[in-house]
Amino acid sequence: MGIVIVIIGIVVLAVALVAMMRKSAREGAGAWLVEKPLRVWWLPCLMVAYYSVLSVAVDQWDLVLFTRLAAYFGLPTLLLYLTGPKSDDTCTGRDLVINFAIVLWIWLLIELKIVNTNWLRIQIGGTKSTALPLGVYAAIIYALIALSGWRRFDLKCDLAFKKADLLPTAATFGVLGITLLTITLFTGLATLGIAKVVRLNPLGAPLIIAVPVAILVAAPMIFVSIGVVEEILFRGAIQNLLRHRLKPVCALVVASLIFGLAHVNKRALGFDVPNWPYAGVAALAGLGYGFVFWRTNSIIASATVHAMVDAMWVLFLRGGK
Questions:
Q1: Helices 166-187, 276-296: inter-axial angle, 10-degree rounding
Q2: Which of 39, 44, 126, 139 is most exposed by smallest CB count within 10 Å?
Q3: CA angle, 139 then 145 then 151, to 5°
Q4: Residue 184 and residue 317 in contact, taking contact as beta carbons nearer than 8 Å
Q5: Dihedral sign from CA coordinates of 105, 108, 112, 113
Q6: Residue 126 in contact with residue 4, Cβ under 8 Å?
């Protein structure tokens, strides 16, 4: 029964995320909260209640994590409540400070692992237990409602991909893919080779079949689990915020540097943390993702490039080691 509740909870979270990626839904949620400002406290209450219901269902409720989550969602909510909701979409210097404070709080506590994003571990049948990073999606939903609904800041993260977005998306991936491939192989940050999971696929399919199947499976998974989440945060929030005070090119560069620094604690092959070469490569990749976002105003476009680059890294670069 516990697993059933968790599965239902995952579906609810996914539906909520997709819904909040629509501007009309965010504005609707924000309008409901603004009617009675005390309602903004529903946000942290819903988040910790969601965690509690799912964790109790599988006997994994933890007081320490509950307390950290209460502070994680409660403190930015206190800032929102004390500064009040926005009645228009203007963005003053004070607004930028408040918005940046919320974004950095949401990001840094996850990045520094102060708050565990893997709220639960579940095991179905004889398979190994799987960690569920529900905290990441809950945090993004919170940020979407807080920034776009309550603060009236346009994150430009609607679920839209126009025909005109196809060319800049494909061209950027082509240029970025070749550039990153050259740099990572030259510096020794990666080795060229097909990942073991593809070579030793469970069905024993030949590589001519296994490789395309792996790409078709990996790219959408990365798009959902990493691409959309990071692009909402770094492009929709940070790069957009910077554009209110900097020229678009400067905003792109600064947001990319921040994106690179966010990856300095990643290990790759023989490079230990702080991994500055990896951070540099990530910053370069961020330039590509940010450029696509700048040209298309589409999170879906930048997340698509992000997912394809990460799929290339996972399937064809790290696999040789």
A1: 170
A2: 126
A3: 120
A4: yes
A5: positive
A6: no
